[in-house]
Amino acid sequence: MGSHVAEHLLCMGHNVVVLDDLSGGFRDNVPQGAEFVEGSILDHQLVHRLFQRNRFAYVYHLAAYAAEGLSHFIKVFNYRNNLIGSVNLINEAVNHELKCFVFTSSIAVYGAGQSPMTEDMTPVPEDSYGIAKLAVEQELKVSHEMFGLDYVIFRPHNVYGERQNIGDRYRNVVGIFMNQLLKGEPMTIFGDGMQQRAFTHVDDVAPIIARSVSIPEARNNVFNVGADVPYTVVELAGFVAEAMGRDCRIQYLEARNVVKVAFSDHRRAEWAFGKKKKVGLQEGIRAMADWVKQHGARESSVFEKIEIAKNMPRSWAAALASFQV
Question: What is the pTM of this model?
Answer without folding.
Answer: 0.95
